[in-house]
């Protein structure tokens, strides 16, 4: 059986921490920012962990 190919697009979006957690950038900070409050845009900076419901699917796409 051939090797599983990892999803290159997912690899560019997700980083795996030393403990195996999946970390992504916070969504919603690319456009339509005028209508969002400063409090909201500040909250969207940085990284967040992938939702528990999605981790199995994301790990499969990464080939882990």
From TrEMBL:
- Fetch the Pfam families from UniProt: Ribosomal_L35p (PF01632)
List UniProt keywords, sorted A-Z. Ribonucleoprotein, Ribosomal protein
Annotated GO biological processes are:
translation
InterPro entries referenced in this protein's UniProt entry, alphabetically: Ribosomal_bL35, Ribosomal_bL35-like, Ribosomal_bL35_sf
Region (Disordered) location: 1-20
**Residue ranges under compositional bias (Basic residues)?**
1-18
**Gene Ontology CC, one term:** cytosolic large ribosomal subunit
- Mention one GO molecular function: structural constituent of ribosome
Q: Which PANTHER family match?
A: 54S RIBOSOMAL PROTEIN BL35M (PTHR33343), LARGE RIBOSOMAL SUBUNIT PROTEIN BL35M (PTHR33343:SF1)
The entry's family comment says: Belongs to the bacterial ribosomal protein bL35 family.
User: What's the protein here called?
Assistant: Large ribosomal subunit protein bL35
**Species, as recorded:** Winogradskya consettensis
């Amino acid at each position: 059986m051939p090797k599983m190919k990892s999803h290159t697009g997912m690899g560019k979006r997700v980083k795996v921490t030393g403990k195996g957690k999946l970390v992504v950038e916070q969504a919603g900070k690319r456009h339509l920012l005028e209508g969002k409050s400063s409090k909201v845009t500040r909250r969207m900076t940085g990284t967040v962990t992938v939702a528990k419901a999605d981790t199995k699917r994301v790990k499969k796409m990464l080939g882990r």
